[in-house]
What does this fold into?
Amino acid sequence: SRTRVGALTFLGGVHLTSRDPAFGGYSSLAVTGDRFTMLSDGGNAASFRMGADWRPADIGFTNLPGGPGEGWKKADRDSESMAIDPRTGTIWAGFEGANAIWRYAPGFARVEGHVAPAAMKRWDVNGGAESLVRLHDGRFLAISETTRGPRVPVPMRRGRQALIFAGDPVADSRPALRFTYMPPNGYDPADATELPDGRLLVLNRAFDLPFVFTNILVLIDPREIREGATVTGRAIATLAPPLIHDNFEGVAATRESGATMLWLVSDDNDAALLERTLLLKFRLDV
It folds into this structure.
């Protein structure tokens, strides 16, 4: 069977299931050591440890202790992105409908603060901070799923608005750096992560009939990001038929034995009969 996909080598994966009706809809992922944390559109978090045997252990579920809206469905919350400080365990979540960022104590124990950044005020109601990344130097990256940036000299394409916050957006009021991310044609940015070497990787997603999701992973040199810049990056892998494919919306990077690993989680859109919650592992060779 084929294991090589562009710059990725497939190492394995697991199909996650639960009888809990709130399980699923995961669109953001964080991995610290062997601890996995997934946050759903409906504000439900699942965490577990998993080793080489692919068997989740020490499993826990919780609901957000606060945030825009109430309930456990996407329409109630729309929590689309998440970042975790691996040193302190502090968690930030991006809410697409409210164009807001909320900060939580480790394990989502309590709300610590929230902000509706001025730079996100006019982002699309259903296309806000789909990606939220805490960078190693303490800055934050946010990318809108659908909010268009300024027109660029590429036929039939417009980029997505993106921001770099100088620090914790909940506590640091300095204006964000604005730039435009140009996804592959026909794709929307779904999530992003910072690699151990400081490069950025954006997970892009597209949907086409008959009910087929595809993804393109794009590598970005952070030195290209500056005020007003348009950043395209370089496509390094495409997940599409006949290879394994699904509605992958979450990505995280880890380091193992000197190699960079990428983890992808799929959002089943609470439609388990049509989609799955898959957690896949790849080695990045670029």
Observations:
- The radius of gyration is 17 Å.
- The chain has a mean pLDDT of 91.
